[in-house]
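Researcher: Here's a chain I'd like modeled. Treat it as a single chain, no partners, no ligands.
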Amino acid sequence: MFLKKLAKHERDRRYGIEYLNYTDIKMDNLEFNYLQATNSYEKLLPLDNKKNNGVFYTDVFLARQILKSLPISQKDVILDPCCGTGSFLFSAYQQGYKNVFGADIDKKSIEISKKYVPNGNFIQIDTLGASYKKIKTAFKLQEVDCIVGNPPYSVLNSKTTINADEIFLEEISASGNNLFIAALIRAFDLVKDDGLISYIIPKNFLHIDAYSNLRKNILKEKTILEIIDIGQYFSNVRGEQIILTIKNSLPTKKHKIIFKKLVVSDFLNPVAISQDFYENEIIHFRSELEQDIFIKLKKSFCALSDICKGYIGRGKSKHISSVAGRDVRKFGYKRTVVPKAGNQIFIQNIYSAEAGIIAAFGGNLQASETITILTDGSEEMCKYLLGILHSKVCNFYLQKFCYNNSKLTMHSDAKYLKKIPLNIRDKKSFNQIVNCVEKLENEYYLSFRWYDLVDELDKLIYETYGLNVEQKNFIELSMKESFSSRWYKNGK
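Model: Modeled as a single isolated chain. Structure tokens:
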């Protein structure tokens, strides 16, 4: 073994370690040469081609960590059906696995894999287009114990296609119409009963509607062993990723999914949640207390969609005087006076974890498409909802349970806003919240008094939801870690 010096940006790119605090990486000659070869080849691939075909190679560090986390033996048959230059199988070879198999549609990447994985079995084949029987025959495989890898992800369209039979294409279309969906479905065909599948896939698979059919099928018919949040791991790839590990067998009634997070260089903070807790959307709870808060808010109160029957959607005005998202600030506008009457709330359509909801009373103003409009029956109800939307409770709910702890900018669209829990049974607290919001509308923006009123509003809303001290403190701490310091008096 010897030490190879790597520039920090190269080390971070290859190993995906954001806070690595040392400058030397231990590796042998084979690994160093392999990294040089695979990185050089990836740089030659045109960016448009990579995006259209979802080709972004996994570094050896992450592949190694995934393999170490799997309950497999060194005699098991390991297959990466979309292996690229073979980082998973190179890592498997390093760790002493005897039966490693890889396939890819790209001839050059297969050549690199063959060169650096001496005990590997590699073939050039389109595993998303070919039938699973043809793939098994090509490898002369009877059973596959473990499928592992980072399948391509890209929406199927005129630029991104699969040359497969109609039945398979229809199944993909009904399940989300993406390359990684095709890879997941094909993996279930290839792996043996009780075998494992461990794939890096987009994090939004856990909750967006497009993947609902396949997600429900997996929850009902497969055993989800682990879900590991690795954040926005790959450069030039929009979105965040997870590692999804599934056992190809029916889940038992008592089975629990283990949720983890990539922290620096390891998978940490395990939380176990019963698989039967989920019917469709899979929320990545970071603690049991987080789950308790979710249950209380969801089961004790109505959703916004149950109470507000007006319009919730994008603005449509093209008029030069229409309000745009950039014109809105919390409880007011940059250049427009808050209206005195009407039944609209204007919400910036772009939502960030640092700012949370940014909204104002819209009265009878017109809104552009960068605004999400929420209408309801009275000015008082709009003011009440405005207070709820800006509260830490609401933003905690959105970030944790609607956006699944995403650090990226999202959209404050109707499908998320409709899930917000509401409690309007207490007329006294209702009036207190409305009164506080009206004071905020008239207070100088970001003044000391403005911050005091925001704190007062949060206290009222904590009481409205009946949250205990532990739950309140947990929400406060979570939002302190998320919100920008500008939303706190003196930045504290």
